[in-house]
Write a structure and sequence with these properties.
Helix content is 42%, strand content 12%. The chain is α/β, with parallel strands linked by helices. It starts with a helix and ends with a helix.
């Protein structure tokens, strides 16, 4: 039966071939959060293999070109179905940015699809008619995913490896290989059934899907064993004893920056901060860390001199506020300039995390280093602003990037790695391991994307950073999904979308440095080398006739 299905797919031609590639890619997005229907890849990835099998022709150039078209159509379907929700951000100020909605929804997936397109073309260049082609496709698609996370500013959102993170059991292998290693395993495991058709001996055709099954069982078995040694999530992995309160005000993005809402929003933060989520406690007393989300307040401290005294009046002596906040840095070369005094002539604006004590003093600052293109800055900023374009945050000149990874701490707060918004999607990039922190903080504002898959996908990626690093994660979002996550990626406490409230929790303890952090690059290289060996094994004996 599988030979009959493969044969019908292989002979597809023209638009029918591209349409099936597009549909297979779109269906593959169901393997991502919040759906987590990862078995769908057992259908869609073999379909991709068979579609490339069908890219035949008298000339090598035509075969490679057809494979590139198949790879692009597959990738376009995958990214369109998985990232359509990004368009919601352009409707927050529809009168200004609404015209860009079709461009954002189509152009971004189309650009990202170039990576699987190139991968498919390179795979076709060395394609084999037997089981080796599974190794070849998994190898080049994995390399394409690595490139997607690095080229230009990088955008590794919905890497295929997240298909193997739908449960705490499956995600534990990230402590060995990281998300990139999980991507290698995912692509091979779920493409392997395609080896049951095509050339090669019956034994060889059976061995590849059998190996895929063994690898999946190994991933699940390792996860089950690791969690069995961890104990139940209610134990919170030997908590540190530090108490925290996360404030989630659930402010609609369209309302947040309206001047008439400024005082109300600030008052909401102060009120919620002094409200316990537990009947055993009252007020803010006994809270070590009060945590507000990204760009929590709709103003700059520079222009609201009463804000820091009001925060100081809220905080007890033992409590430190950790908040996301936009920060202005004036031009120090001309501090007396009248334009600078008026708030103009500003040198830099940062998207920051600040530590503030009970006296209203700012103890330490982290400035976001990895900015969102078209969200926080424009490529060719001056040129595009000159023709009237603005990034979504509407900050003239765009945000400035900070210097990079930094741990924040005070005398009472354990050192932590601050990750602002989508910095959490970059594996290992923003955690200073020279002085390994004790936990990770991700402040974000997913209100831009409403009730869509976006916030769920963002949470999953942040959770995986906890598993990779062996560190607990605290996530504070303006509107969903705030959470406390232990170093095994298990959610201890959570506030969902559109829920206004607070989370009171103790901070989970951390684990020893993970294998991924110690030698993840070496293990990833080993997986890629194994695919290369499998793809070119017995090259001369199995070379496809041309």
């Amino acid at each position: 039966m599988i030979d009959a299905v493969a044969s019908r797919i292989i002979v597809l031609w023209g638009w029918r071939r591209l349409l099936l590639a597009f549909l297979a890619g779109a269906a593959s997005a169901l393997a991502m959060p919040p759906y987590d229907l990862f078995p769908v890849l057992l259908i869609t990835l073999p379909v991709l293999v068979w579609l490339i099998d069908g890219t035949v022709g008298p000339q090598r150039r035509s075969r490679i070109g057809a494979a590139i078209a198949v790879g692009w159509a597959f990738g376009f379907g995958y990214f369109l179905a998985g990232l359509w929700w990004i368009g919601a951000a352009f409707l927050v100020e529809a009168d200004v940015f609404g015209w860009m909605l079709p461009i954002a929804i189509v152009v971004l997936p189309g650009g990202l699809a170039l990576f699987p397109a190139l991968a498919a073309g390179l795979a076709r260049l060395v394609w084999r008619n037997g089981p080796q082609r599974i190794f070849i496709l998994a190898l080049f698609l994995s390399l394409g995913e690595l490139a997607r996370g690095a080229v230009l500013t990088g955008f590794p959102w919905n890497a295929f490896g997240y298909a193997l993170t739908g449960s705490p059991v499956l995600m534990q292998s990230a402590s060995l290989f990281g998300i990139n290693g999980l991507t290698v395993l995912t692509l091979f495991i779920f493409a392997s059934p395609a080896a049951l058709s095509g050339g090669g001996s019956r034994r060889a055709r059976l061995c590849v899907p059998a190996l895929g099954l063994v690898l999946f069982v190994a991933v699940a078995g390792y996860g089950a064993l690791r969690l069995s040694q961890a104990g139940p999530v209610t134990e919170r992995v030997a908590g540190t004893g530090l108490t925290l309160r996360i404030v989630q005000p659930a402010i609609p993005q369209a309302e947040k920056w309206q001047p008439e809402n400024r005082n109300r929003i600030f008052a909401d933060y102060l009120t919620l901060s002094d409200t316990s989520s537990s009947p055993e406690t009252a007020g803010i007393g006994g809270v070590d860390m009060l945590i507000w989300p990204e760009s929590a307040l709709p103003f700059l401290f520079d222009f609201e001199p009463g804000a820091l005294p009001a925060i100081a009046a809220l905080l007890p002596p033992e409590t430190t506020l950790i908040t996301g906040m936009q920060r202005l840095e004036r031009d120090a070369t001309d501090p007396q300039d009248e334009k600078s005094q008026a708030g103009e002539g500003v040198a830099r604006i940062y998207n920051s995390v600040m530590l503030i004590d009970h006296q209203g003093a700012i103890l330490d600052i982290y400035d976001k280093a990895w900015l969102v293109p078209f969200g926080e800055f424009l490529p060719f900023q001056s040129l595009l602003e000159s023709v009237g374009l603005r990034q979504l945050t509407n900050v003239i000149g765009g945000f400035s990037a900070g210097p990079g990874p930094k741990s924040l701490s005070t005398g009472t707060i354990a050192p932590f790695a601050p990750l602002v918004c989508y910095e959490a999607i970059f594996t290992g990039a923003f955690i200073d391991m020279d002085t390994r922190p004790d936990w990770i903080l991700n402040v974000t504002n997913d209100a831009w994307f409403g009730d869509s898959p976006g916030p769920w996908q963002h949470l999953r990626q942040a959770r995986l950073r906890a598993v990779e690093e062996g560190l607990p994660l605290v996530r504070a979002a303006n509107n969903g999904i705030s959470a406390v996550v232990d170093p095994y990626g298990r959610i201890v406490s959570r506030l969902g979308l559109d829920v206004r409230g607070v989370i009171d929790s103790t901070l989970p303890g951390n684990l020893p440095t993970t294998r991924f952090r110690k030698s993840g690059g070496l293990l990833l290289s080993g997986l890629l080398l194994a695919l290369a060996v499998g793809g070119f094994f017995r090259y001369s004996a199995n070379k496809e006739g041309k």
